[in-house]
Amino acid sequence: MSRFSLASIEDLFFNPPHRVIVDDAQSSVVFNGLTPLLDAMFTSTSNYIAANWDGLDDLQSGIFAYRWWVGSELGNDDAVLPTDPHMHLIGGQRAWTNTGLATGLDLADGSYYISVQAISSVEYGGPLVTTIHHSTPYILDTTPPQLNDVIISDYDTLNNLLLFSYNASDEGSGLRSVSLSLGRTEHDTELLAWTGVGTAGNGIVTVVIPDGVDTWVKLRATNNAGLSSVAVSETAILVDRSAPVVGSYGDGGNIDSGDVEFQSGTDELCVHATGVADPESGISQILWEAGTSPGGSDTVATTDVTDALLGSGAVCRSGGLSLLHNTTYYSTLYITNGAITNYTTTLFTNVRVDTTKPVGGTVHTGTGSRRDLPYSSDITTVSASWEGFRDYDSGISLYTVSVSLRVPDSVGL
Ligand SMILES: [Ca+2]
Ligand SMILES: [Ca+2]
Ligand SMILES: [Ca+2]
Ligand SMILES: [Ca+2]
Description:
This protein is mostly beta strands. It folds into four domains: 6-140, Immunoglobulin-like; 146-232, Sandwich (Immunoglobulin-like), CATH 2.60.40.10; 249-353, Immunoglobulin-like, CATH 2.60.40; 361-413, no CATH class. The chain has helices spanning 9-12, 306-311; strands spanning 18-22, 30-32, 42-43, 48-53, 63-71, 80-83, 99-103, 110-120, 129-133, 138-140, 146-156, 161-169, 175-183, 192-196, 202-206, 216-223, 228-232, 249-251, 262-263, 269-273, 283-291, 300-304, 314-317, 328-337, 344-353, 362-365, 384-387. The strands form seven sheets. Strands 1, 3, 5, 6, 8, 9 and 10 form a seven-stranded mixed β-sheet that branches. A five-stranded mixed β-sheet has the order 19-25-24-21-22. The chain has a four-stranded antiparallel β-sheet with strand order 14-13-16-17, with no helix packed on it. A hairpin with an 8-residue loop joins strand 8 and strand 9. The longest helix has 6 residues, at 306-311. The chain is rod-shaped and about 165 Å long. Residues 1-11 have low confidence and may be disordered. The structure holds calcium ion (CA) (4 copies). The site of one calcium ion (CA) has 7 residues, from loops.
């Protein structure tokens, strides 16, 4: 008798001389998975499990048969019962694959442990059995990572640095990698192909994002079982390396009058600005403040005037103001664009309050040597001249001359 019959294998395991080995991470005999000599750590497939082994055939007497099994704890067989992996093969030992494959399973996520048993072909004195319990778990994870809270915190337009953070984790197999891509939509990666960014939960990527392009940021987290989740930034980001532009601006509420340098009213302060725009990213906010010193806000506290200035082009503050004669009021407008790293155009203008009328001055009929003559023979022209009008605060901006006709009581015709 040179061989045990297959029918007698089960009997051999009841009480043979038995050696049990629990291997360690450095051992290279039993391996998880189908790839020869590669110890797989993770899998995402729940309907089959596999193992392979090597180096068990150098027992002095040769191997008569193998069995393998799988359990949720070391040595257990609650996942795959002990099976002869070569039982179905024709051709004897030459056809052995030293691979175990159990299919049609419905495994739950968790850790699985492979055991392999070799029965030696001892011809005298009964078989010897060696069992190796592979201590490196084969981790099944069928759920992709959790990935959310993708936040783009900043874009450094000088150095082209994109700063971001996210929340990613994987309970079963842990995170293996996180990648980032940029696209013009939520789906493409046209602006930046997938780029590894580490798993720290935040990072910085150097990438040139063109001005004025809605840019969607995508993150992809992959777990150790090879499953991925993708998350997209809640909104597109907009990069703009140029500040808003402005047409004209100044003091006063009448944009047709342009900037004024003096005003007589004491209960109202106005500013105007026209042509306010940013072609790349639009205008997000306009703030106005005014005070009695440049940059001050003691007269008009910082106020959001975005709607008013983009609408009518002018904004006034009237209630509660009591401006002082001979005092200059300095307005500051902060015009901010809509980019992720926004640029602000700051405008300065000022107006001086003059509540007193011009003084002095005399008016004469005629000019030069013909001044103040009682009669004139010129029937087509009336002329006048004046002198001495002054305003010590704001100067004279305009003279208006009027001529009235008074007919004497008796006119000789
Ligand atoms: Ca998972
Ligand atoms: Ca711009
Ligand atoms: Ca002015
Ligand atoms: Ca005056």
